């Protein structure tokens, strides 16, 4: 080995860089650059950091629904030793907000390196949300799944967890989930979802397990057309043929569903084959032809153009895009938008739009929004030159439901700016500014910050803060705030509004940014440069220890207590699952008084019984591990109410939560019996 290292020292820097370029960057940063001092001197500056997260793998299906953002997965090779050396101590975690800490936990959960997961769980200071379990399930890390769900009190989200395991072929994880009864309330519906996901991803082993061993006698078998459509959308041509041979698909609606799936996920020759079988019936109506054209245009296959051309040639004219109020089979408002967005992640998206335009098809608003949301700069730049767009089907549908009509088609610059700001796509915002597009980014960012998420989404999953890069660019990186504010003021004056009505509420921006998980530099800028008031309670919910120290230094203890009581602050930290903030409050004497049993009991009862959800069981358990609670009949009743809420609402209580609930019930029975 020493001889090889000595020979490396004889190579010139260019050859050493070529060798390093042939290796994974993590291998170079963790080992190769330390081969000898000559190699280290050559590569030190180029390989200073590790890539911890792999590029997300995106997919889209109209039949396998219910799965949102792709999971955070660890890059391989994973620098386990270096991760533990850095993140296996408390100091570096202090600068990370709750969202960032949880993302690191997800990466460690999927790292296939148990010591990394140990380090993350020891220091992340956050409730374990379902995202972490999804990450572990996606890589088949069964022991990590067991630990997270059973021992660490991880939240549960049925479809994403099952999809992660099933679509990646991890039958052992699926079998374990079934053995512990994690079906999310109804075996039949979960089985139906997972079987379709297996057909989409071509995971035959998991498919066989689900069909032969799960829920026998419970039903839950999808219709043959659903299975065939899922296989077609996933490009599983052989499986599609087997499914159709085993159970025939009949009727215009079912044939159209399967044919649309074929147009989306299968090669052109497969589309032509099945169109020859069903086309006369399945494409008889205009809305069915629209479905086929949409699927071909947004297809992830390389021959999307050939499919579009063949369909248009076959029909002799274009059916156009979906019209207001009428949607294609299996394609609702969300799926229609999602298909364009998934297509926009393809490198050839600009060529798609140009090809469709050359065929005489108007470009729909959703296609332009997708270019901006995906950060596809060439496509977004091309869209700037388009005429007024085909109105968004989603917007048109909503207006129709309200009995209103669209006054005029939207202009591309407006659509691009809104979508890019909401998605945080700074490269698109840069080209818009370079082209002189004047638009009120600030108000759109504020709207994106305030976009409501379902209540259980906030508790069960750690959602990305997508518009944060755009907010930072606009405020701190030369994004044209002055021009944007001037545009707003001019527009407000033209509409007869008062200046105060059009002004940005910077305190609201800071409040939402703090709760969603911002960085300290942006919060400080909002406060110091725009006079935004610091909302300490929101910082406690989503912020970092470093941010809390800063806010306490600015406000002082009296300023903090004037905003909220220690109990309210502590409750905010517990409800949001920000254990690091809760510990910080305890260490500063800003939480509940450990000697005030009445305060503790009231807080416990509030978390257990007054939230209309059983999702705060981890907060109850965390509280009991750190405070000596004297049990009362009211505390026992609150636990009973929590259980009743779970049963009555059909909440899928996670395995670890059930175990903790049982232990708490045993504690209270034992304590009250001793009185």
UniProtKB/TrEMBL annotation:
GO MF terms, alphabetically ordered: phospholipase activity
SUPFAM superfamilies: Pseudo ankyrin repeat-like
Cellular component, GO annotation: cell periphery; endoplasmic reticulum; membrane
Record-level GO BP terms: ceramide biosynthetic process; sphingolipid catabolic process
PANTHER family: SPHINGOMYELIN PHOSPHODIESTERASE 2, SPHINGOMYELIN PHOSPHODIESTERASE RELATED
Descriptive protein name: Uncharacterized protein
Species, as recorded: Chlamydomonas reinhardtii
């Amino acid at each position: 080995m020493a001889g090889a290292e000595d020979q490396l020292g004889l190579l010139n820097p260019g050859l050493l860089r070529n060798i390093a370029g042939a290796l994974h960057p993590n291998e170079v940063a963790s080992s190769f650059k330390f081969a000898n001092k000559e190699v280290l001197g050559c590569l030190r500056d180029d390989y200073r950091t590790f890539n911890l997260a792999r590029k997300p793998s995106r997919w889209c299906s109209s039949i396998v629904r219910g799965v949102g953002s792709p999971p955070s997965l660890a890059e391989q090779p994973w620098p386990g030793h270096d991760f533990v050396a850095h993140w296996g101590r408390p100091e570096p975690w202090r600068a990370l907000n709750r969202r960032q800490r949880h993302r690191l936990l997800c990466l460690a959960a999927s790292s296939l390196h148990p010591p990394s997961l140990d380090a993350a769980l020891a220091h992340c200071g956050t409730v374990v949300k379902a995202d972490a379990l999804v990450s572990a399930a996606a890589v088949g890390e069964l022991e990590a799944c067991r630990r997270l769900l059973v021992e660490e009190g991880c939240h549960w989200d049925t479809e994403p967890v099952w999809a992660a395991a099933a679509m990646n072929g991890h039958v052992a994880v699926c079998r374990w989930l079934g053995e512990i009864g994690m079906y999310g309330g109804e075996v039949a519906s979960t089985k139906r979802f997972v079987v379709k996901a297996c057909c989409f991803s071509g995971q035959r082993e998991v498919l066989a397990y689900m069909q032969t061993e799960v829920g026998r006698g419970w039903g839950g078998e999808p219709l043959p057309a659903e299975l065939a459509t899922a296989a077609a959308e996933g490009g599983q041509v052989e499986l599609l043929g087997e499914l159709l041979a085993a159970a025939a698909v009949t009727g215009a609606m079912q044939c159209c569903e399967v044919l649309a799936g074929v147009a989306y996920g299968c090669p052109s020759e497969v589309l032509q084959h099945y169109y020859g079988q069903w086309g006369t019936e399945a494409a008889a109506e205009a809305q069915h032809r629209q479905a086929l054209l949409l699927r071909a245009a947004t297809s992830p296959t390389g021959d999307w153009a050939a499919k579009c051309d063949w369909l248009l040639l076959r029909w002799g004219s274009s059916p156009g895009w979906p019209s207001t109020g009428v949607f294609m089979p299996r394609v609702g408002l969300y799926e229609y938008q999602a298909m364009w967005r998934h297509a926009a992640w393809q490198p050839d998206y600009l060529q798609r739009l140009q090809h469709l335009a050359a065929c005489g098809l108007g470009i729909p608003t959703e296609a332009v929004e997708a270019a901006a949301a995906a950060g596809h700069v060439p496509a977004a730049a091309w869209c700037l030159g388009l005429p007024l767009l085909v109105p968004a089907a989603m917007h048109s549908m909503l207006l129709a439901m309200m009995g209103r009509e669209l006054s005029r088609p939207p202009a591309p610059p407006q659509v691009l700016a809104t979508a890019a700001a909401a998605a945080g796509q700074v490269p698109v915002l840069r080209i818009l500014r370079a082209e002189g597009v004047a638009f009120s980014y600030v108000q759109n960012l504020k709207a994106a910050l305030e976009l409501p998420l379902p209540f259980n989404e906030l508790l069960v999953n750690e959602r990305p803060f997508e518009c944060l890069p755009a907010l930072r660019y606009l405020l701190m990186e030369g994004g044209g705030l002055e021009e944007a504010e001037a545009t707003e003021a001019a527009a407000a004056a033209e509409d007869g509004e008062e200046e105060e009505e059009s002004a940005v509420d910077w305190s609201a921006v800071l409040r939402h940014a703090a709760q969603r998980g911002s960085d300290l530099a942006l919060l400080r800028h909002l406060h110091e440069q725009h006079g935004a008031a610091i909302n300490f309670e929101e910082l406690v919910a989503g912020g970092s220890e470093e941010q809390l120290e800063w806010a306490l230094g600015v406000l002082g203890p009296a300023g903090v207590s004037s905003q909220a009581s220690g109990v309210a602050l502590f409750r905010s930290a517990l409800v949001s699952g920000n254990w690091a903030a809760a510990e910080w409050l305890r260490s500063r004497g800003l939480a509940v008084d450990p000697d005030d049993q009445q305060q503790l009991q009231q807080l416990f009862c509030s978390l257990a019984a007054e939230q209309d959800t059983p999702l705060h069981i981890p907060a109850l358990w965390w509280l009991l591990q750190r405070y000596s609670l004297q049990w009362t009949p009211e505390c026992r009743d609150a636990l009973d109410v929590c259980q009743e809420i779970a049963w009555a609402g059909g909440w899928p209580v996670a395995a670890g939560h059930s175990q903790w609930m049982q232990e708490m019930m045993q504690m209270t029975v034992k304590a009250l019996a001793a009185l």
